[in-house]
Amino acid sequence: MTQMPSNNDWNLSQSYITEDSHLLNAREKSKELGLITIGPGAGALIRFLASTIDASNVVEIGTGTGVSGLCLFRGMNSAGVLTSIDSDAERQRAAREIFSEAGIAANKIRLIAGRAIEVVDKLTDNAYDLMFINGEKLEYETLFEQSLRLLRPGGILIFNNILGEFSTSDAQAISAVSDKIKDDSRLISVMIPSGSGIIAASYRPS
Ligand SMILES: C[S@@+](CC[C@H](N)C(=O)[O-])C[C@H]1O[C@@H](n2cnc3c(N)ncnc32)[C@H](O)[C@@H]1O
Q: What pLDDT score does 206 carry?
């Protein structure tokens, strides 16, 4: 039998990594703009995953004000470039400022304003070490299909915000993509109940 974590255990796990002032500023800006961000526990997890593969080229769907982007940067190698897509240009402007204040050079960030499924379609095949998806749920299945084109073998795919209360259509979209990932023999996947829930998978085509 597995012992379930208590609420205290859960809170400890989600605040285990102390966030610096830049991340806290990015969170504050998100709050001002009424935006939900990745939590500290899941943020630490994506940082960790980026570091395990020494990620250099990362694509993110859902820039927001840069919270998840900063977490990814902290795990990527020093030559790393983050391509981050968001349909909201105001949020991306805020993220650019936050990245700059955090000392991230402008040539390390490629912020693209637009609808994810349209922008992703134009990105290069086999060019990314990690793809982090945290945007519109109804696009998750299309983005999953695209991720297998964009990721290099050994790359990592991450979907955020896959646990919780959703509208019927969002719940169906999440369930469909969860099943597709789990059943794909090219992927080694795991569901992790950190923050609002993550599915991570490593891409191992034969
Ligand atoms: C929940 S927020 C997460 C932001 C960021 N990943 C974080 O954790 O701080 C989702 C972001 O995705 C963006 N978004 C929603 N639908 C999108 C779409 N179809 N294409 C591109 N971006 C989208 C929103 O504008 C928002 O900034």
A: 81
Q: Which residues line ligand 1 (CB under 6 A)?
A: 30, 35-38, 61-62, 64, 67-68, 85-88, 91, 115-116, 134-136, 139
The residue-averaged pLDDT of 97-123 equals 98
41 is a domain residue? yes
27-68 residue pLDDT tens: 999 999 999 999 999 999 999 999 999 999 999 999 999 999
CATH code, 48: 3.40.50.150
* pLDDT score for 71: 98
Quick check: is 53 in a domain? yes
Ligand 1 centroid to residue 14 C-alpha, Å: 22
Integer Cα distance of 188 and 202 in angstroms? 5
- Å from CA of 53 to ligand 1 middle: 25
pTM for the predicted model, two decimal places: 0.97
* Residue 189 is assigned to a structural domain of this protein: yes
- Give the domain extent around 119: 36-203
The gap from C-alpha 165 to its chain's centroid, in whole angstroms, comes to 19
Residue 181: CA count within 13 A, CB half-sphere: 28
Rounded to whole angstroms, how far apart are CA atoms 123 and 149?
A: 9
Query: How much distance in Å is there from the Cα of 86 to the middle of ligand 1?
Result: 6
CA 54, 60, 63, 67 torsion: positive or negative?
negative
